[in-house]
Structures are given as C-alpha cells and as structure tokens.
Amino acid sequence: MMEAFVLIIVKPGNEEKVYNKLKDKPMVKEIYRVYGEYDIIMRVEVSNIAELDKFNDEILRKIGDIEMTETLIASSYRV
C-alpha cells in the first residue's frame, strides 16, 4: 500500500463543490479544508504508482474547479 498527500488549490468559492466530488472516492482516506496557500488537503491510499497516476488523470484532472495540485508521496523513516 502506498500513501500520498494531495494539496489542492481550488477556484475561489468552489471548495465545497470539489470536496463533494472527492470525499466518497474509495482511495481518499482523509480530506480537510485548510487555510493558507492551499484550500484542501487529502490523504490518498493506492496500491502502486500506476493507481496514483490513474487517480490523478481520471479523477483530479477532470475536476474543472481545481486550479493546481501538488502530490507528496509518503515515505517512512528507517529507525
């Protein structure tokens, strides 16, 4: 399993609309409205990088109210 955090900038006034389009997707495990440079942050769990690509291409890029995303792939510390 692979985790990623997606930071999203939304067209002003469309935050709730984007939230509603994403909240029920099975790979979206957490989603929050945040203050600052980004409007939404979500934690996504996927099986592999190909599934993350598919999520990005088939879901995120098709939401016209999203202006920009930044995807951070989670790693773990080796202790």
From TrEMBL:
InterPro entries documented for this protein: Dimeric_a/b-barrel, Tscrpt_reg_AsnC/Lrp_C
Domain Transcription regulator AsnC/Lrp ligand binding stretches: 6-74
Name this polypeptide is given: Transcriptional regulator, AsnC family
